[in-house]
Design a protein that fits this description.
Length: 229
Amino acid sequence: MLEQLKQKVLEANLRLVEYKLVLFTWGNVSAIDREKGLVVIKPSGVDYEKMTADDMVVMNLDGEKVEGDLNPSSDTPTHLELYRSFPDIGGVAHTHSTFAVAFAQAAKDIPPYGTTHADFAYGAVPCTRDLTGEEIKYDYELNTGKVIVECFREKGIEPGRVPAVLVHSHGPFTWGKDAAEAAKNSAILEEVAKMAYLSETLGAQTASKNIQNKHYFRKHGEGAYYGQK
């Protein structure tokens, strides 16, 4: 079942290692088949160098395992909540990459200091509120997804324009049109977070709205002209 999607999800997970975003088993990527309403995700706690496409786990959007011999990632409920709430995304990634986690642990948004950030996201990458004691005790991973969705809705952020979030005290989640793009966005987010951290040590100011608009919309939207057609 979903053999091609399993292979793509495996490859996207291995990209996290290639991009130096994960140590040991600290990360996961998933993808969804919207027509079937099924999600393929990395198994929990399995070393990347040992994983095969057959190890990927198939889940439905209700959180029921449809296929797979292994347990799915412990972050599966978070992924599923994002797929349910953000209907235009096709892949989700989660890492504990150093600079993005540093901002999450400081409970700080990543401000748009320059054009690299603006090429990636339209405005700051937000950090969620902290989860309450009850939210941590009961359905922690599901509630992690819910606070991400709450953050975007309360701040009026479109997930298609800001493909990343920082979970307070935890770390980053990113998404994209598919698993490969979600993993790529994790790499871009880490680089943007590193640049932001270094910029803050020099007392940087956020980029002007004019330059943010120029760089975001030359790569995204109907008037984009970056790259080849």
